[in-house]
Specification:
Layout (H helix, E strand, L loop, with lengths): L6 H7 L10 H10 L8 E8 L11 E5 L10 E4 L3 H8 L4 E3 L1 H8 L7 E4 L4 H4 L3 H5 L18 H11 E5 L5 E8 L4 H17 L10 E8 L5 E3 L1 H11 L1
Parallel strand pairs: 3-4, 3-5
Antiparallel strand pairs: 1-7, 1-8, 2-6, 8-9
Helix pairs in contact: 2-8, 8-9
Length: 240
Amino acid sequence: MTTRHGKKYIEAAKQVDSTKLYGVDEGVELAKKTSYTNFDGTIEAHLRMGVDSRHADQQVRGVASLPHGLGKMVRVLVFAQGEAVGRAEEVGADVVGGDDLIKQIEGGFLDFDVAIATPDMMGRVGRLGKILGRRGLMPNPKSGTVVQPQDIGRAVGEARKGRVEFRLDRTNLMHVPIGKASFETKALTENLNALLDAVQKAKPSGAKGNYVRSITVCATMGPGVSLDVLPALAAATTSN
C-alpha cells in the first residue's frame, strides 16, 4: 500500500535530495527548514544499526545527556522510602512515594516523563513492568534510573537537563529526540553529537562490521535527511 502524503509534506520533501548524504550541520539545518507543523516540532535522529537485536550480545542500550536539553519541562517521579523520600523532595522531584505511588500508577496515573527508583524499592516496582515497560518508563540500572539514595540528586538533575534513553528495537533501529525545531542549528548539532558519542560507547561485544549503518534526521512529520555516517561519527567522538 502506497503511503499518501499531504501537500505540505510534498513541498518540504522537494527541498531534500534523497540521493545525497549530508554533513551534520547542513543536514540538521535542512531538517529544521523542512519542519512544517503549526507547533514547534521535535527534531529526531533515526539510526539503523549493524547488529541483530535477537542476540543478547548485540543489544544496544544506554543514556545520553544532551547539553541543550529537549526544550520541554521534564516531570520526574522517584520511588523511595525512608530518608530517601526527603532527599528526593529536597532536590525537586515532582512526585515522590512508595507503595502508595505504586497503587496510583496501577490505577492509571502516568503524569511523568522519567521514573527513578532506589534499589530497595525495585522488588515492589517490578510489578509495574507491564505498565511502565511498554512506555519506556521502567527504572533500570543500565539506564541510570536505579540509584542509591545519595545519588538521587544527580539522577534528578540529569533527567531535568535532557537525559534521553536510546534502545534498539526489533527492526534494529533506534529513534531518539534531540531537541526542537526552534533550537539553533548549533545546539541541535551538539545534542546529536552527544547522542552519537554515547551510542558508540555503548557498542556491544557482539557487534561486527559497520556498527552504525545509517543516520537520518527529521522534524515531526517531516521528510528524512540522510547524513554521511563516518564523518558524523568522527565529529561526535572529537567533540566529546
